[in-house]
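hey so u asked for the seq, here:
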Amino acid sequence: MNAVQQEPRASFDTWGPWALLAVGIVAAAISAPLTGMDGRGKIVSAALVPAGVVLQLYWGRVKRKQPGPSRTGVCLYLLRWAIAFVLTWANPFFAFYAVTGYYTAARELPRRLVMPGLFLTAVTMAGSEIGGWPPRGLILWIGFFLVLAVNMGMVTVFTRYALQEQTRAVVQADTIAELERTNTALQQALDENAALHAQLLVQAREAGVADERRRLAAEIHDTIAQGLTGIIAQLQVVANAPDLTTARTHLERASALARHSLGEARRSVHNLAPVALAADGLPEALKKTVGEWGERVGVRAEFTVTGTAEQLHDEVSATLLRIAQEALSNASRHARATRVGVTLSFMGDEVTLDIRDDGTGFDPAAVPPRTRTGGFGLDGMRARAERIAGSLTIESEPGHGTALSARVPLVRDDR
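ran it, structure tokens below
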């Protein structure tokens, strides 16, 4: 905006004084008989007009080298005022040239000399407006001072207005520049946020894929792997059975377990929900699971429900059932327990599943990391609980059994 405003001013500084000087010369030549311009005035004008031309040429060179207020500019301003004052004395119509001082004072003079420079120009203009220098008689002198006062009043008002406009323009330019910087910073922030958002989407997608893989691994382990483990165990018993009746009994168990595992696998393929929960709620499913497990492995297993049983969300029920199945599988494979107790507790806004055995126990801090050939293990159970904002705690000691407790939020079925 400043650049747009300064272009006309710069152009006027270049050609304005020349145009006004030319207008003054023409007006003075035409009005010479009417204003009583004598021979001496013509001689003075003939000498000062070329001086004004030389001054403008020199001033143009100075401004190209040193734009803005300077000591040289002050001297040239005063010299031009003196030439214009004398020319106006010779002929009032040379005031066209003198008026240049109004337009150039603010740009050619230091701020402290602007008003004095405008005052000198106003003196010249007031003398021209009353008919020329010198005023003749008291009335003309009074008129001169009145016209001078009016000129100075107008100059003061217009100067103040110009300064206000200039200040407003500077503030506006600074505001625009600040807005541009802010917009640039905002655009950079938006670009960075877009890049971060894209990165977060990629990370979230990768995390989702990894989580789904872990979940699928747990489901496969809890269905096919555990079923096959049970079948193998039953077949090993058959291989060492002392009589046909015992072998047939374990073959029937292996066959039932195979059918059960097949159903679990089919169910998992469809929606990864345990078959035991298809027709029963969690308490009934846990009761059947614990009973069948105890009968299959020959261990006394008891199931208890405390609190008021509620219909839980499918994901909560499936998670607790899978944890119970994994814990029972661990008890049969590692603990060599003779008694296992499973308790499902409904406690207000939480559900707790506790599995206790009197087996060999172990040191939780010394559990080796899971291998490809091992089970899903404690880490899998903990991951299941944490996936639904729950937790898993394990208390065990070599020779003193194991107690496992899973605590999850009580989320009711929304159907």
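The longest strand covers residues 339-347. The longest helix spans residues 138-239.
lmk if thats what u needed
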